[in-house]
Design brief:
Helices cover 74% and strands 0% of the residues. The chain is mainly alpha-helical. α1 packs parallel to α3, α3 crosses α6 and α3 packs across α7. The termini are far apart. 36% of the residues are buried.
């Protein structure tokens, strides 16, 4: 629950992508009885943690956001990812808050960018609530129902987890590659304009 908050509230998702893997696995563990909690209560606790995390990210964006664009790259912070999230939100506007929840590199920055761009709070919270319900609902209940259907699956989590992390990183890799190509094309166009 703390990691779900920290992913967007403390930008931990920049360091450790894969919140969906954690949520999916949690659903599996609840279904097999390894985690002794009601799935509905667990969903509500995760939703509360995710909304609080997004709220903290939104506040960071409103209060300190402009400074992030001048921050130097570190081992956990890449300005490229901030710009990628910003471009994504600019292109997709409100749907970016919901869809961005499903992209590991964009997810930690989405609330921050919403705060930086001064998205109205009511709009942000309504979209965040929808995004959290869809995101957690999909991954948590998928894990839960899979665990109910195949209870012995918990014996294979050592294989499933690394494979699912790799699968979930494919869209991240593709998005980064796409953005690098877009940046190269933009740089080449700017260079050609300067030379003419």
């Amino acid at each position: 629950i703390v990691l779900i908050f920290a992913e967007t509230g403390l930008l931990l998702g920049l360091i450790v992508p894969g919140g969906e893997t954690l949520v999916f696995t949690s659903g599996l563990l609840v279904s097999t009885g390894t985690l002794d909690i009601s799935i509905v209560l667990f969903f509500l606790l995760l939703a509360l943690a995710a909304i609080c995390g997004d709220s903290a990210g939104y506040y960071i964006g409103r209060r300190f956001g402009k400074k992030l664009y001048h921050k130097k790259d570190t081992w956990y912070f890449k300005k490229q990812y901030l710009q990628m999230a910003h471009d994504y939100i600019e292109r997709h506007k409100k749907t970016a808050i919901v869809a961005g929840k499903f992209f590991p590199v964009v997810r930690p920055f989405t609330p921050v960018i919403a705060g930086i761009t001064r998205m109205p709070r009511q709009t942000f919270y309504a979209l965040t609530l929808l995004a959290v319900i869809l995101y957690l609902g999909l991954f948590l209940f998928a894990g839960y129902f899979l665990g109910n259907k195949f209870p012995d699956i918990k014996n294979y989590l050592g294989y499933i987890l690394p494979a699912s992390v790799l699968i979930l990183l494919v869209p991240v890799y593709l998005q980064i590659r796409k953005n690098k190509r877009r940046m190269k094309t933009k740089a080449r166009t700017e260079s050609e304009e300067i030379n003419t």
